[in-house]
Amino acid sequence: MQKTNQERFNWMVAVYLLLITAILWMNTARADVIGSTESKGFMFKDTIKVMSFEDPDIDGITCYTTRYSRSLSFTDSTNSSLACRQTGPIDMNKPIQLVKRNIFVQKKGFIFSKDTIVDRFVDLNKKVIVYLSYTKSIGDKNSSHSLSVVAVK
């Protein structure tokens, strides 16, 4: 049974998209849940999870972020919180990008997709690494952001 040109094309597109997704996923930090707590709610409690992730390119920096999950809701809060700290030696002689987008991406929301994204900026003059956390959603409500700075010693 021979495949038509359209079938071959569809198969090649699917493989290409799978490879692109794998490459993007490998270049993004993954978070570990280090704790959680319940917040408001009488029977079904909303939860706040505290997560940590390491910068995928710079050894010695760990960032902490939170994820707020609403029970019995298809939407999640767009609030974003971020704190990054030096947790080991940082090698500034190693080549790094001065601006790196999407070092951490967290998908939020079930129906209305909201993503929490962390970008990295390096200020060589001040010898600091700046991390910016912000949310993106389908709508226009992209107001939440947070900033953390790590001084390189």
Could you describe the 3D structure shown?
The protein is mostly beta strands and 153 residues long. The chain is 14% helix and 43% strand. The protein is built from one helix and eight strands. It has one helix spanning 5-26, and strands at 32-38, 47-54, 61-69, 82-86, 99-108, 114-123, 128-137, 145-151. A four-stranded antiparallel sheet has the order 1-2-3-4, with no helix packed on it. The protein has a four-stranded antiparallel sheet with strand order 5-6-7-8, with no helix packed on it. Strand 6 (114-123) and strand 7 form a beta hairpin. The mean pLDDT is 79.
Q: What are the main properties of this structure?
A:
mainly beta; 153 residues; four-stranded antiparallel beta sheet; 43% strand
List the helices and strands and how they pair.
Elements: H1 5-26, E1 32-38, E2 47-54, E3 61-69, E4 82-86, E5 99-108, E6 114-123, E7 128-137, E8 145-151
Antiparallel strand pairs: 1-2, 2-3, 3-4, 5-6, 6-7, 7-8
Rg (CA only): 19 Å
Structural class: mainly beta
Helical fraction: 10-25%
Strand arrangement in the largest pleated sheet: 1-2-3-4
N-to-C SSE string, H for helix and E for strand: HEEEEEEEE
Alpha-carbon distance between the two ends: 65 Å
Report strand %.
35-45%
SS summary, helix count = 1
The average pLDDT score comes to: 79
Low-confidence stretches: none
Report the count of strand segments.
8
Gross morphology is: flat
Major sheet details: 4 strands, antiparallel
